[in-house]
Known about the structure:
Blueprint: H1 6-13, E1 19-23, H2 27-35, H3 43-54, E2 63-68, H4 70-74, H5 83-89, E3 93-97, E4 102-104, E5 111-113, H6 119-129, E6 133-140, H7 149-168, E7 172-179, H8 187-207, E8 216-217, H9 234-248, E9 255-258, H10 265-278, E10 284-289, H11 291-301, H12 308-326
Parallel strand pairs: 1-2, 1-10, 2-3, 3-6, 6-7, 7-8, 8-9, 9-10
Antiparallel strand pairs: 4-5
Amino acid sequence: xxxxNIEEIANYLVADGKGFLxxxxxxxxxxxxxxxxxxESTENSRRDYRELLFRASGMNENISGVILFDETLxxxxxxxxxxxxxxxxxxxxxxxxxxxxxxxxxxxxxxLTGGLDGLEKRCSEYEDLGAKFTKWxxxxxxxxxxxxxxxxxANMQALANYARIVQDHNMVPIVEPEVLMDGEHSAExxxxxxxxxxxxxxxxxxxxxxNIKGTILKPNMILAGQDSPAQLSHSEVADLTMKCLLExxxxxxxxxxxxxxxxxxxxxxxxLDALNKKGGNPWKLTFSYGRALQQAALKxxxxxxxxxxxxxxxxxxxxxxxxxxxxxxxxxxxxR
Length: 336
């Protein structure tokens, strides 16, 4: 696939009915996922698991891009083929997570994502390795007086600085300002925090002269905290999320790929479907899911290559369901 500029890449990534597989778990994070299925996390076991996803039939026609961890971008499949080539053969583009995780702000509970040091050099290398897009995640917590405007602005400035560096290396930046579901907060609190984050984000992106037409947003949906007794219906999630986006996101952005953020597989699909059924938006609305695409496959695999086919079928089903949701054509009776 040949692209002449980042706008073409961005539009390819948000093609109708296609979304992202987030397979960029750090080594400690995937280690926890493997612990849950009593599987040792080694370089080979991580490769085997990710390779089975990339070779699943559900990659075709459903997945436009795969977000990778550094190890995976450099890794070869069992037959010696680079995993990034396995991905490319499905029609999906390889991408790379480039942030370096979070650290506390002024010894508080709030955090700032780091990784700008050395990012220019890393992006140059990732461009040479064939990555077409990148991802950087900022994390906002809701509790009492959090997130503070200081935390929001510091993280959104970092996202804007990251995005400019990435675009200078001919890759599309995915900007991910995640307001966490953790806690008992209301959907209204999530709406307020998300609005502030998006407002600050696009102000900083504009100030940094980031090309919005060559950028993809990966936000949370507007949800009540997971421990709140006042949960929203799928229709209410769609209404509040769309209102928030229309008020804060410029229309020239090509696409929005939602994170699943702790939602169940079905809820993540149903909420995306409700958003697309609602319509009235200037952007493509799709998915960039990790656990909501992988959890069923992981449980089917259980660390055994004998279960590869079952794991691939589980992943392919979820990929197809989310494709339908991205088109506004999903119904619950399609689920197994």
